[in-house]
Amino acid sequence: MRYCSIDFETTWLDLYKDEPIQVGIVLFDEHFEHVRTFCSFIKINQDIHDLKDVVQLLTGITKQDIVNAPSLQNVATEIADFFGEDVLLIGHNIWFDEAFLKKLWSFPYQNSIDTQLFAQCFMHYAPSYALETLIQQKMSDTAFVALYDKIMSHIYDSETNSTPQKTHDALYDATLAMILFAWCRTQQLSLHQKYTSYIDPLVQSCHDEHVLLPQNTANNTTTQDSIKKRIFPLMQKPLSSEQKVTHRPTPDQTNENETLHTILETILAPSIWQPTKKDIWHVSHRSLLQELILDSWSYILAFSHPSKLSIFKNTLAELGYNDVGFLKEEQTIDEQKLGIFCQKYSHSFEEILFTYQYFSQLEQGYSVLATPNKHSSQIVSFLTTDRQIQPKRLILASHSWLYAMCEDDQKRETFASHHILFLDTERWYISCNKYLHFVFDPYYLLDTLESVLYTYNTMATTASSYAIQAVNVQAFYNQFQIFVGVFCLEAMAYARILKKSTYDIADLNNHSAFYKTQKSRDHLRHLFKPLSKEPHLAFLLQKLQKTSALMDQNITIDTKLLHHTHISFTLSHQTKFTDWSEFLWFFEKNTVTFLSTNGANKSTHNQDTQNIYMGDPRKHTHSHTLLSSHKNIFVLSANKSLSHSIVKTLHTSYPTHECMGENITWWVRKLVAKSRTSNKKIYVGGYHFLMALLAADWKYDICFVAYISWPLEKTIINDIAWYW
Q1: C-alpha pair distances (Å), 686 with each of 78, 640, 649, 674
Q2: Residue 447 CA from chain centroid, whole number
Q3: Buried b (16+ CB within 10 A) or exposed e, 364-400
Q4: 536-562: per-residue pLDDT in tens?
């Protein structure tokens, strides 16, 4: 067996019209001994002047590099020997590189493995599963560093006598993928050896052939004795973070005129029916939490955005307080379902990978299974069962979770003694409107249906009633896929006629542009009847009924064309929620205080205190001094074209900093993960991106506000300063 790691750098992400501009390949034998390396730029057919600036920014590849590069035919001759029937193709997000490989050439190989999927079995709750993030996370592991140095020395010292390049260099990324694969393979074999009596029987039952499955057991016959050995040890150990000693901190010294206790009494003074907001700008969020910890009351703190919740969670951990709860059901592994999963007569390759993930988490002392990908999410959804919420004294929640609690009599009773502190009161309209007005996302429902289908197919191995219902669910799922496809195509076609991506429909049922959608929907109704009384489908059926009711009303359709291979759409109510008094009815039976950080005449104070500067950094009077003398800089811009221009200029003008833009150079999650590295950074992006960085404990030294919509400017600036 030979391992071939491949990476393409391309003109962009569209498999239909984009082209490769660089390829890197490294070949190792089954003992991870280096065999061969290849790297080359590739000449493209499209006009070289059409090469995007962001591609040059990410890869460092210039137009001159591509103009003088070999053709595809010449590259094919050079790399043909890397492939064969004994080759396992390796790559990070290998589907992308594999698609280009098949599009360009017809080289043979036995199978492929995605190192992102493979790493998710052994690296849990990573901030991002981007390749460089995973590598960076393992650099504190001595054994991993030794493996890293060994493979790097083969590629760069003996072969090319050059130094390693940055990420988005094809050879460097292919090498990193090989290093990650080698480490994961070592972890897999180690776990297999330790838990062989549990894993071997599942490998025997696997109906997918793959070279990563241990060869000595893959063809063994399944026996009743082996089936009995399949039952995994149950995860019962608490997480290490759950074992920390909870203590109450001593409050920080403050210069405020009021004591913290007086501040808290002032905040909690009004009743719900006094719709005045309490301004807490003069109290830092850390001081507020210190006083809440020392107080004897129980509280629910509700936030408009998950990042703000994370900031408070992190601050509580810094204060040594870990007895924090959340407004959602805690899940625990159902021992009976675990037995059913283990005793299946047939398992897929994805289920075998999940088995390694299970034992890896068991080894590391986790009690909560991670769901880093679609397959593991389906399996965990089957294995776990909800248990009653244990009300902690301090509860952190999003606005939407709070609204759901207030509408659920049982949950509201559970938290009847908790005082609600509704933070970010300025955003009540947005969060409430989002909660009340159901949005139909067909892809979310398809994922939910797939999880339900997996559950029924798994349970069908033990009960014939589930087998019958599994057939019904499968039929409904197949028709729902057709319905979504037809609806999406008709929605996109009508959008092209109207020449706008978002539009209103008053009567979808009788609209000529959606004739096929209605026919498909009628067929769905027929298939829905056998499922309507199934108690295990209650959550899904509720979503489907809300979707059906939505389609009978005046709706807004929002269509999106991401690229040639991905179109999507959503539906939502046209009606908008506006009434503050109606909003207060959510809290009719609760004690609540509305808190605001948007205090009058505080804007200038915020900027001076938290190093916030108004204006484009390229035009600011002291911009060069400020940018040169600070390590971490954030440029707040809600305009993508402006953000792109700023990233391009600052990347050229300040080479000492790594300049990155939200959804320009990388996606948000990857950018947040990169914030943990120590090099100088300039981030450019929107408000939610900045909050995500603050939640990851990244602090800016200076922040430029290049562009925000003027009605939100003061609120956003005060928000940033208070949560900073």
Answers
A1: 45, 9, 18, 17
A2: 15
A3: eebbbbbbbbebbbbbbbbbbeeeebebebbbbbbbb
A4: 787 788 888 888 888 888 888 888 765
Topology at the third CATH level for domain 242-329+388-436: Rossmann fold (3.40.50)
Picking from 383, 389, 376, the residue whose alpha carbon sits closest to that of residue 334 is 383
Tally of CB atoms within 10 A around 18: 18
d(CA 193, CA 378) in angstroms, rounded, equals 27
String of DSSP letters for 245-281: PP-PPPPPP---SS-HHHHHHHHT-S-TTS-PPEE-T
Distance in angstroms (rounded) separating the CA atoms of residues 93 and 590: 48
**Helices and strands per DSSP (H, E), number in the chain:** 30, 21
Instruction: Look at residue 283 in the predicted model and tell me its pLDDT.
Output: 83
Q: For residue 489, what is the enclosing H or E element? A: helix 464-498
74 is written with which tokens? 């010449």
Q: Which helix (H) or strand (E) holds 647?
A: helix 640-653
Instruction: For helices 464-498 and 515-528, give the axis angle rounded to 10 degrees.
Output: 170
pLDDT tens, position by position, 298-329: 999 999 999 999 999 999 989 998 888 887 76
**What are the structure tokens assigned to 444, written together?**
């979310």
List b or e across 585-601, with b for residues whose CB sees 16 or more CB atoms inside 10 angstroms.
Answer: ebbeebebbbbbbbbee
Nearest partner of 100 among 89, 87, 115, judged by Cα: 89
For residues 605-627, average pLDDT: 77
Residue 13: closest CA among 127, 97, 75: 97
**Tokens 């039929």 belong to which residue?**
475
Tell me, what DSSP letter sits at residue 154?
I
- Across the chain, mean pLDDT equals 84
DSSP characters over 328-370: S-EEEE-HHHHHHHHT-S-B-HHHHHHHHHHHHHHHTT-SS--
What φ, ψ does residue 418 adopt, rounded to 5°? -90, 135
Quick one: which of 295, 290, 590 has its CA closest to 418? 590
Strand, helix or coil for residue 592? strand
The CATH classification of domain 2-186, taken from the options 3.30.420.40, 3.40.140.10, 3.30.420.10, 1.20.120.430: 3.30.420.10
Residues 206/348, Cβ–Cβ less than 8 Å: yes
Which CATH architecture fits 603-723? 3-Layer(aba) Sandwich (3.40)
Rounded Cα distance between 114 and 92, Å, is: 5
Contact between 187 and 120 under an 8 Å Cβ cutoff? The reply is: no
Q: State pLDDT tens for residues 165-207.
A: 667 899 999 999 999 999 999 999 999 999 998 998 888 888 8
- Residues in the chain, overall count: 724
Structure tokens, 580: 């503050």
Beta strand residue intervals within 541-588, DSSP E: 555-563, 566-573
Q: How far is CA 635 from CA 347, 624, 643, 718, in A?
A: 50, 14, 8, 16
Q: What is the largest CA-CA distance in the chain?
A: 79
| 141/137 Cα distance (integer angstroms) | 9
Domain limits, the chain: 2-186, 204-230+334-384, 242-329+388-436, 442-573, 603-723
User: Which of 126, 98, 119 has the alpha carbon at shortest distance from 8?
Assistant: 98
Structure tokens at 133: 């993030």
- Rounded CA separation 79/87 (Å): 13
What's the average model confidence in pLDDT over 468-490? 91
Count CB-CB contacts under 10 A for residue 498.
Answer: 11
Q: Do 603-723 and 2-186 have the same topology in CATH?
A: no
Residue 627 in 3-state DSSP?
A: helix
* Per-position b or e across 271-304, b if 16+ CB within 10 A of its CB: ebeeeebbbbbebbbbbbbbbbbebeebbbbbbb
